[in-house]
Structures are given as C-alpha cells and as structure tokens.
Amino acid sequence: MRIGSTTRRGFIGGALAAPLILRPAPARAMEPVDIELVLAVDVSRSVDEQEQELQFKGYAAAFRDPRLIEGIAGGPLGQIAVTLFTWSDWHIQELLVPWTRVDGAATAEGLAQALDAAPRRTWLYTSISGAIDYASGLFGQGYEGTRKVVDISGDGISNSGRPVADARAEALDKGIVLNGLAVLDRSPQPWAAGMPSLDNYYRDEVIGGPGAFLMVAEGFDAFETAVKRKIIREIASAPPPGPLVERAYA
C-alpha cells in the first residue's frame, strides 16, 4: 500500500510531537575514604593577629607530622578527605581549603601549603551554631566516609545566630560527630564575666556523637600541640577509648 503525502506528513508530525525522553545523567560516584573531616577555625575578634597565625601554623604543622601520615596509612582505605573553613558571625564562613584527599606525605604537604597561603581575616562575633550549620552542609561532596566528623576550634562562647543546641541536635541526627578544640585565653576579657568556663561549655553544649571528645589548649601557645594530638586521634581507624576531655600545654 502506498502512503500518501498527507499520511506521511501525519507520521512526521506525530513523531515531532512525541515527548522527548531524557535519561538522567549517571550520578557521580562518591570516592570512599576512612573519614570526612571538616576543620572549622574561629576567626572572631577575640582571636588577634598573632593568635590567628598560631592557629594556621598549628593546622599546617599537624599535616606535616609523620605520626599523622602513619595514622592515615593505618586506616582500612589509607585515605581521608579534609576541608577547612573559618567562621565568625552567624552568616560569615569562608571556605579556605576545599575537599582534599589526603593519602600520604605528598598530599598532606599540599594541604599544609594551602594553609600557609590561605588569607588571614578577622571578623566580629562568635557563632558556633552558624559554624555547625555550615559544616553540616559540606558532607557528601565527592567523598563518602565511614565517619563524618566536624572539628570546631574556638576561644569563646557562642554569641551570634540561633541556639547552639538546635544546630547541634540537627547535626547529630545526620550522623555527624562534633569534636571541639577549646583554646583557653589567659588574658581575661571583660565580657566573659559571669559566663561558664569555656572548657565546660564546649564539653556540655558543643561536642556530641559517638566517640566525641574535647581537646583543651591551655593558651594559644599550646594550639599546635593540641591540634596535632586531636587530629591524630580523630583519624585513627579504631580510636581507642580515651578521655572525654584532654588537655595540651605549651
């Protein structure tokens, strides 16, 4: 049977009118790592220029420490993912080191160099809840860790943003572990009168989740020692039971 021009046009029109079915692009495979570690660094006004430099040098030194490299190598996968941001007011967080795979001395040195070159900026207030909220949104970006840990370092009590308890509860519901690094400033500040001690505050109000712990740096001069011990403990593949609160001295 011959198909007339009218019929042929109908076939073509029907084909053109048919809905275009788009297949979804395949999801990007997540790279498995032993831990996704978010480092959140306080840069509020209570952290002066010298103290901020001690923080950055402390984190860089931690990733140059052979013990940390050995700890990473000892994990089931032998690699971790790390990102670092600074925080202050509830709406001020600055991502300085995007997610980086660390699987040996070379990649650890690359991360340390990124910290050496990172800008140093100071803001005003202290929003631990803002830091937790921001950190919680960083997970699942290219890496999938058997553990998700946020490491919050700071030298003051939250005074900006929503209640810390609300942000903390939401993070814990997502399976995130919150660890703390409280820096005890030996120069008393007038606005701290009547407030709870910082180490007790971090212990009771900030940290949480399975195996969570608090490292206390007795002054900024002890920060490097504190951060080295803290990250080495965090990345251990099977962290041994340790104290809820550890203290580091210069």
UniProtKB/TrEMBL annotation:
InterPro entries associated with the record: DUF1194
Name of the protein: DUF1194 domain-containing protein
Organism of this sequence: Falsiroseomonas oleicola
